[in-house]
Amino acid sequence: MTIRLFTLLFLFSVSTSVFSQTNATSSTSANKSSAENASQDIYIKILWLDSNGIVQLNTNYIKTLTDQQRAALGYIATDVSSECNWDGVKKADGSNLKCRFLWALHLGYQCSDMHLSFLRKWFKEDTKVLERLQYCNKTESSAKIQDHFIEVKMLTTNDTIKILYSAVGEDLDKQKTWSWQEESTYSFTKTGIKQINRKNINGEYN
């Protein structure tokens, strides 16, 4: 078994147990809320790996996302890969890297003008996010060093979006792997969005 497959399947089982705790908490919260607000108190699974390690997307729900939700998800997908491959022959400027998650969010190619201009528009008053967007890396799925999403969940209330995700990274040359879970929270209005909190729940980056 390759280190990539072993890592994904093993850490998938780990992240599933961690995120199941989130489900329990969310269910309790939902039971306490009124019926009309129940849907707002439940984390919606956006992306996950199936038992074969294949990325699955909640396409029906993704089609209903607001621009603010797309911005929050598009931001976390800027640095973590999800089936990223060149759309045809790689262009000289590397401008045709198609990542499945970003594509489903209708944000175009990885680090493209379409992708980054959308995020800059919505995060226009968040200087930290804007600074980070200056360094957008294009990482294809065949790269020897990269990060992968294992699972992504999102909760949306009247003016707040919270995202929980689990990810795994690998360096094939060094036979090194790492994993982590992260929670990020965003406040939003009709015209903009800001990241108000970001914390590591478990594990660490490379």
Notable characteristics:
two-stranded antiparallel ribbon, alpha+beta, 32% helix, 8 strands, 6-stranded antiparallel sheet
Taking the alpha carbons of the first and last residues, their distance comes to 23 Å
* Biggest sheet, spatial arrangement of strands: 2-1-5-6-7-8
User: What string, H for helix and E for strand, traces the elements in order?
Assistant: HEEHHEEHHHEEEE
Structural class: alpha+beta
**Runs with pLDDT <50, length 5+?**
5-12, 14-40
Label the overall shape: globular
Q: Approximately how much beta-strand content do the residues carry?
A: 25-35%
Largest sheet: 6 strands, antiparallel
Q: Count up the domains.
A: 1
With helices defined by DSSP (H or I, 4 residues minimum), what is the helix count? Answer: 6
Question: What would the average pLDDT be, to the nearest integer?
Answer: 83
What's the gyration radius in Å?
17 Å
Q: Give the beta-strand count.
A: 8
- Helical fraction: 25-40%
Outline the fold blueprint.
Elements: H1 3-32, E1 44-49, E2 55-57, H2 59-62, H3 67-76, E3 84-86, E4 97-99, H4 100-104, H5 113-122, H6 127-132, E5 145-156, E6 160-171, E7 176-188, E8 193-203
Antiparallel strand pairs: 1-2, 1-5, 3-4, 5-6, 6-7, 7-8
Helix pairs in contact: 3-5
